[in-house]
Amino acid sequence: MNKSTLIRKLFNTVAVTLLVSCLLSFLYMVRSIETSVNDYELVQGFIGWVLVYALYAGAVILIYANLVSVLIELLRNKFNLNSLTYIILHGLVGALTGGVVSKSTLVALCIAGIAILYALVDYWQITQEDESRSIKYILLVSLLPIICSSIYFATISQPLPPFTAEDAIASAIDAHSITSKFPHKSGKVNSKEKGYDITRETRAKKIIRNTYSVKFIEKWSKDGVKGEHRISYEITRNSLTLHSISGEEPPYYNE
Is the pLDDT of residue 36 over 80? Predict the structure, then answer.
């Protein structure tokens, strides 16, 4: 296999991978929108799924599809096969592979379609005299659906609601830990447990935009003995970081 063929197959791999990944991601996002209760950050979701599908589809196309295509191209050159036969052979091998691997007619047809798409792109490149220009056209055509889909999802996507102190507190409170006993908004609550007078306080302070410091402060007293325990978190919309723990652990949790 000469350098020109290697370059052609490589760019065909990139082009078909992008087209297939774009289609699968678009279909997934459309279905997700129909079943989801919110439509936030759709562009990020679309691009993310394009990358996920590209990782798997690209690996299969790069290794298996290119190997099959090279063998079919050798047959084409040896027996002087016409373009239709060249394309159909790709589709037949794709359908056979899909059928054997998945035992599903639908999957076999889908893989056959991908194989035919690869063959069409590949044969079009073979017929072009200006190799560099054909590569530019291929990359443009493969990127255009992703750009158009991104614009579409950006248009229908809803802006994220503001991240509030109450949201930050809700992120920090764990139903399976002692934080569940604290107020679910900034404030104090008094209680009496096992003879201890207890005050639990929740504090939330905005540090920067969409970032809060949330503190859980627990104070107790019994028979003149007092204690205090503090847990502090730094919280953003997508992360929670334990900042500090101070004081002694409340004794009544172990009694």
Answer: no
